[in-house]
Design brief:
Blueprint: H1 2-6, H2 8-33, H3 35-44, E1 46-52, E2 59-60, E3 66-78, H4 85-101, E4 114-115, E5 119-120, H5 122-125, H6 130-138, H7 151-162, H8 171-184, E6 190-192, H9 197-205, E7 213-223, H10 230-233, E8 236-238, H11 241-247, E9 257-259, H12 262-266, H13 268-271, E10 276-282, E11 288-294, E12 301-304, H14 308-327, E13 340-347, E14 353-359, H15 374-383, H16 396-399, H17 409-418, E15 428-430, E16 433-436, E17 439-442, H18 444-449, E18 454-456, H19 458-464, H20 467-477, H21 479-488, H22 510-516, H23 523-530, H24 540-551, E19 555-557, E20 562-566, E21 572-575, E22 580-582, H25 587-602, E23 621-627, E24 638-645, E25 652-659, H26 668-680, H27 689-697
Parallel strand pairs: 2-12
Antiparallel strand pairs: 1-10, 2-3, 3-6, 3-7, 4-5, 8-9, 10-11, 12-20, 13-14, 13-25, 15-18, 16-17, 19-22, 20-21, 23-24, 24-25
Helix pairs in contact: 2-3, 4-8, 14-26, 17-20, 17-21, 17-25, 19-25, 20-23
Length: 700
Amino acid sequence: MKNFFKDRYNIVGIAIILMFSVIVYQLANMQLVQGENYYAQSQSKIMSSTTILAERGNILDRYGVPVAVNSTSYSVLLMDTGLGSKMLNEMMYKILDVLERNGDSPDDTFSKYLTYPLGFGSMLKNNENRQKTLKTMTGYDFKGFDQDSTPEEIYEYFKDKVFKVDDKYSEKDAYDIMTLRYAGISMNPVLADSISTNTIAELEERSDEFPGITIQSVPSRKYIDAKYAGQLIGHVGPIDGDELAKHRDAGYKMTDVIGKSGVELTTEGYLRGTNGYRRVEIDDNGKPRTVSEEGVKPGSDVVLTIDMELQKVAMDSLAKNIKYIREVNNSKKNHRDAFAGAAVAMDVNTGEVLALASYPSYDPSIFIADPDDKAANKAKAALGDPKNTTTSEYNRAIAGIYTPGSIFKPLIGIAALEEGKTTPYETYFDKGYETYDGMMLKSIEYIQYRAGLGTVNLITAIQRSSNPYFYHYGNKVGIDNIVKWAKRFGLGKKTGIDLLGESKGIISSREYKKKVNPYPWTAADTAQTAIGQMYSSFTPIQFANYAATIANGGKLMKPHIIKRVVKYDGSIVTETKPEYEIIPVKKENMKAVQQGMIAVANATDGTAADKFKDLKDITVAGKTGTAETGQEANHSSNALFICYAPAEKPQIAVAVVVERGVFGSYTAPIAKDILKYYFDSNGTGNKDFTVKADIVQLTK
């Protein structure tokens, strides 16, 4: 045995075995015995996961010009580091000093409950159960408090019981500290929003004094010239309870922003990005350390078919001409009360909507302004005022329904030709009236001059807008066939445009009269329907599509405003392709109606003669409409105009409606302004999207 221990190799071997045994024991102890304890300790350092907010996609016009983009602001965020009230209050006092010196403001949610000078905030002022509200907002019982408790008593409770603020602070300083402390205990512990670079620099430089304080970048919406298309673009806003319940499965949270109207709403699924997450551990000095991170995925960009410059022209022309109509005083029929309208421009070959103007509009920026922005709050209040005629969220272009008046006559002409009731050159003597069911239906010429237009055919009847001609042939066609052809041209039914809020409209028919009038349908009803009166009411987008269908020879396009959706990496998510139905109309019949519409704008006695003389080499085809509303004793009639150009090879169709616009010819200058800009800009081929898209990169 003695010789064995003298063997140095045996000694070394035994030593190694003993050392290995100790190591194995320690590892077993750490992993099996103390493992759960060590795991709990390591996890206790991980205080929270913070959300990295994803940028919302941009909204761009057809050439890549930004309309809705993102700007980045910065917020002060408080993470729980386990500090006691005394140290937290001291830190809040320092942060308040930093904010004040740099011109920044703390979150003031606390003021909704308690204001300074001491008083009840909006959430408590007229509250019938203040104790319950206070308990909900803080988790404290507020025992002994009732409706008679004063703001001073509640202030003292907050100070002494909830936030334990030392008496060394003044009343105002203590209130400000509690304001930040309250922000820090909320679900989204943001102490201050939109802070300056000076505040960021100082907080980061003095980070040792501010354990748990982090600076978070926050993307926010910014609108550029969107006031010209307020109803079209729409706006975003904080998600409400109903929206949250509807979208909870899609990962929405109570702190999210969501599209509320317009394109912001209809393309929410594309525009919304995917938030990232950062798992943060607080070290012994209270400094956050990123443990893991899941990156954000920005939302996709939505490219519209709209040309924002053309949209501006349409809006400016509506404003200018509505003002002119109010001021001109050359007719007893003008009550000088024109106040609103709409203009729609469409590519007749693709269904792309180039302009969708609804006047008056509004600026979507008011919905993302600071809560204390008095001008924005006043503007939002005005939108809900029925007496307000200067701003509106109502999208007249797709939701407003209007009696068509004489712009309905080309459709009656097509129906009469297709049903074999006349030919393009069959003559009719317009004596100024027709009589049906003992009712004498007079033309404007007969009322004024006791005479009619004399001999007309289909083309000259459209050109000069002969009511008796269309009374006569409307009855030959019959109301059922009129309804059939109106539907074929997309009237009285939704176009399917990619916006919410589109109205269906009304087609004057036997069925509709039964709903609103106990008397049977008559020949006089058919005659009134044939000149675009009676019950018929359609939307401006339907009028534009109807004009486009005549222009392109019988293709009823599906209008759309979404051109493409582009992912953040530049790949195309979706691109809208033209959709249409072929209407069974003989080419020669469509050509005859087109000739009548060309004569409206170009013949010396056309109802829109000389309105388009500024368009030197462009031939316009159009039709005026003056629609009576039954309120002519106190209000002017509505005015309408449809057109397309160039007549020889159509590219663009336009529809204009002015409420109380007096005469259809008064609205033709609006269409002229739209056409002039369009052709001066070389139509839809004037710019390159890929070049303009570079602008957008500056916003990201």
